[in-house]
Amino acid sequence: MDIFCKIINNEIPSYTLYEDKIVKVFLDVNPNHNGHTLIVPKKHYQDFFDIDEETLNYILKIARDMAKRLKERLNYDGISLCQNNGLGQEVKHFHLHLIPKYHNEEKLSVEEIYNKLK
Ligand SMILES: [Zn+2]
After folding, report:
1. Which residues are within 8 A (CB) of 117 and not within 5 positions of it... i.e. 6 or more apart?
2. pLDDT at residue number 99
3. Ligand 1 centroid to residue 106 C-alpha, Å
4. Smallest Cα–Cα separation from 47: which of 17, 79, 13, 4?
5. What angle do CA 71, 84, 17 make, to 5 degrees?
6. pLDDT (tens digit, 9 = 90+) per residue, 37-89?
7. Coil, helix or strand for 102?
8. Which of 28, 35, 43, 72 is deepest in the core (most CB within 10 A)?
9. How far is residue 21's CA from residue 38's CA, in Å, rounded to a whole number?
């Protein structure tokens, strides 16, 4: 079982920002930037080609909602959506990265970021 299935089953703890029947949203524990967030479907899909269209659209909706929340709390200067498949995909369970960018960034711990966002 991959690490995201374990997080979804609560076998591994996570800094969860949002959760419903379809998705779980939590902070990346090895962030590129403050507020680096992962949106993961609860059902296991391997990648972009495996996931069904309805779930994919729902994930994009959640991504925009989360991007607004990150803007309110962290006031980033830009944000990138990133989704890897095959080479470069470290966990073989579909996930969308939200990566805020900053002109000037003081790197905070994941726990400090979580306290600003929860
Ligand atoms: Zn999985």
Report:
1. 17, 27, 35, 69, 70, 73, 74
2. 98
3. 33
4. 4
5. 35
6. 999 999 999 999 999 999 999 999 999 999 999 999 999 999 999 999 999 99
7. coil
8. 35
9. 16
Q: Which of 36, 95, 97, 103 is catalytic?
A: 95
**Separation CA 65–CA 59 (nearest Å):** 10
DSSP code, position 115: H
Query: How far is ligand 1, taken at its centre, from the CA of residue 43, in Å?
Result: 7
For the chain, percent of residues with pLDDT exceeding 90: 99
Topology adopted by domain 3-117: HIT family, subunit A (3.30.428)
Phi, psi at 66, each rounded to 5°:
-65, -40
Quick one: pLDDT at residue 44? 98
In 3D space, the residue among 115, 87, 116, 107 whose CA is nearest the CA of residue 31 turns out to be 107
Structural tokens at position 74? 């962290």
Residue 95 falls in the annotated catalytic set = yes
Quote the ligand 1 centre to 95 CA distance (angstroms). 10
Structural domain boundaries in the chain? 3-117
